[in-house]
Structures are given as structure tokens and as C-alpha cells.
Specification:
The protein is α+β, with helices and mostly antiparallel strands and about 300 residues long. The protein is about 60% helix and about 15% strand. InterPro entries: HATPase_C_sf, NatK-like_C.
């Protein structure tokens, strides 16, 4: 009977290729899970037949096909949900990357036109058109303060688009909260030395902590400096101002789960940072408090 059922399934599959469609985008682990689900239902069928042996052969076939359809349906629903989530994430990334490209293009275009603008100002001054020259200078300064220029000109040297996306997101957070920030990158960064996802997780933890702490300080400021050292090490320093109540932070305790100067249950970020960094032999990090500023320093060996 089982042999005949499998022959029937194979014929159906050749005609409509249901399983081929379902498994086309499935990773190996999901195929294995589906196989175990099918085996589970088949064991249920065998058990039911042993308990109720009076059922006919036709009923056994119907039960088998029903369980098979349930297994396939559950897997198909899961795969459709997973694909939908992935498509939404892809759309969000595309929108973010478009914003990055526009900002970089704006800043590069402004730099290209800057010489012409300076020439125009000189011409106005030489012809005693001082008021017009001042108005033009004011317009240039106003443009420099916009997100399109100020936020992106500091991250042009980061070649990784996902990392640029992270910095764009963090810059928007800082501007929304009114935090004064400065980003300095001495050389183009094309190699981060670790998995890009882990790099994003590490930097987002450090920058988010800096934003949260700085927002509580009297004059919120954040400084981010990325330096490629001569010894093939990448040095990333993230420094933020602190509120007076945060000046006595226990630098060892903040690395423990649920330990934070910001309150109970809010210290998971740095403990996760520790777990990620411990997976690599080329990462070192340190924390310090200097002149009422919290400083996180990250070293990544690129050699």
C-alpha cells in the first residue's frame, strides 16, 4: 500500500511540481525540518492503524495523504511568511541605500561646485557688492548644516554600503535628539576585518549606548573617530558626554547582563558586545571615563 501511495505522489509531483516550488528557496535545515514533520505525522498514522486495525485500506490512503498535505501546508505557509519578511527587509535596505547615495552625491556635488562659489564671492567683493556676497556666504553655511551635506560628508570614506546605512541611521537619531556630533575618518575603510553583520551589531551597540547616555547630559555631544593605524589595525573610538549621575560608572559591571548605569534590565547591549567580540581573536576593546566623557575604544587587527 505504501509503495502505491509513493508512486501516486511521484506522479503528482512530476505534473504540478508542488514540492519543487516549495523547496526552491528553502535552506537545507528547513528541508530537514519538513522531513521530520512528515515522519512525525506518518508515525501518528501507523500508531492509529495499530490501535484501530479495522480501518480499510482506502481509509489508510486517505489518512496518509491528509497528513502529507498538512505537513506540506505548514511548511508552505512558513516559507511564504519567511519570503515576505525577507522582501520587506530588502525593500527597507533599498530605501536606506537610496538615501545614502543621494546624500553622498549631494555632498560630492557641493564640493565640486565649491570653487565656483568661492570665485563668485570674490567677484562680488571686488565689485563692492558686499551685501550680495554676504547673502551667498549665508546660503553656503545654511546648506552645510543640512542633513544632505553635513551628515554624509563624514562617511564618504566608508566603502561598505551596509556600514554606511548604519551610520546614516545613527546620524538621523543624533540629529533628531539634538546631539552635537563629529565623525572623523582618516583613510578610506574598505576592510573591516570581521563579519559585516557582527561589525554592524558591535557598532550599533556602542553608538546606541553613546546616544542614550549623551541625551541625558547637560550638553550632549558624541565623537566618532575611525583611524587606520600603521600597524594594520583599525581603531574606532566612540566618545560621549555623561550626566553627573553617570560619572561613577562601574566599568567592569556594565559588561554583565542586566547591569547598567541606566537602570535595571537595560545592560544587555554591552554583554552582547562581549559575546560577539569573544568569537574573534583579532578584536580588543576597552572602556574609560575621561573628563566626564565615556570612551569606548575598539581595536580590530586587519592583518
Amino acid at each position: 500500500m505504501i509503495y502505491l501511495v509513493f508512486r501516486l505522489i511521484i506522479k503528482i509531483e512530476k505534473k504540478i511540481q508542488l514540492f519543487s516550488i516549495a523547496f526552491l528557496n528553502a535552506k537545507e535545515k528547513y528541508k530537514i525540518w519538513c522531513f521530520f514533520i512528515f515522519i512525525f505525522f506518518e508515525l501518528v498514522e501507523i500508531l492509529s492503524l495499530n490501535l484501530f486495525p479495522v480501518f480499510s485500506g482506502k481509509f489508510q490512503i486517505v489518512l496518509f495523504l491528509t497528513l502529507l498535505c498538512i505537513s506540506f501546508s505548514l511548511f508552505s505557509v512558513y516559507m511564504m511568511y519567511k519570503i515576505q519578511i525577507q522582501n520587506q527587509q530588502l525593500l527597507n535596505h533599498e530605501m536606506n541605500f537610496s538615501k545614502i547615495e543621494k546624500g553622498v552625491e549631494d555632498s560630492l556635488g557641493f564640493k565640486h561646485d565649491l570653487n565656483n562659489i568661492i570665485a563668485s564671492i570674490r567677484y562680488l567683493i571686488k565689485n563692492n557688492k558686499i551685501e550680495e556676497a554676504i547673502l551667498l556666504i549665508d546660503e553656503v553655511e545654511a546648506f552645510e548644516k543640512t542633513l544632505s551635506f553635513q551628515s554624509y560628508k563624514n562617511i564618504e570614506k566608508i566603502y561598505s554600503t551596509p556600514l554606511k546605512g548604519l551610520f546614516v541611521s545613527e546620524i538621523e537619531k543624533m540629529e533628531k535628539l539634538g546631539i552635537e556630533f563629529n565623525i572623523v575618518i582618516d583613510k578610506p575603510v574598505s576592510n573591516i576585518g570581521i563579519n559585516i553583520i557582527d561589525a554592524i551589531r558591535i557598532l550599533s551597540i556602542l553608538i546606541d549606548n553613546a546616544i542614550e547616555a549623551a541625551s541625558l547630559s547637560y550638553i550632549p555631544k558624541i565623537s566618532i573617530k575611525i583611524t587606520t593605524r600603521s600597524d594594520s589595525n583599525l581603531e574606532i573610538i566612540i566618545q560621549n558626554t555623561l550626566a553627573e549621575s553617570q560619572n561613577n560608572i562601574d566599568l567592569k559591571a556594565i559588561m554583565l547582563p542586566n547591569k547598567s548605569s541606566k537602570g535595571p534590565g537595560r545592560g544587555l547591549g554591552l554583554s552582547n558586545l562581549k559575546k560577539i567580540c569573544n568569537r574573534y581573536n583579532n578584536i580588543n576593546y576597552s572602556f574609560s571615563i575621561i573628563n566626564d566623557n565615556f570612551r569606548a575604544t575598539l581595536y580590530i587587527s586587519l592583518s
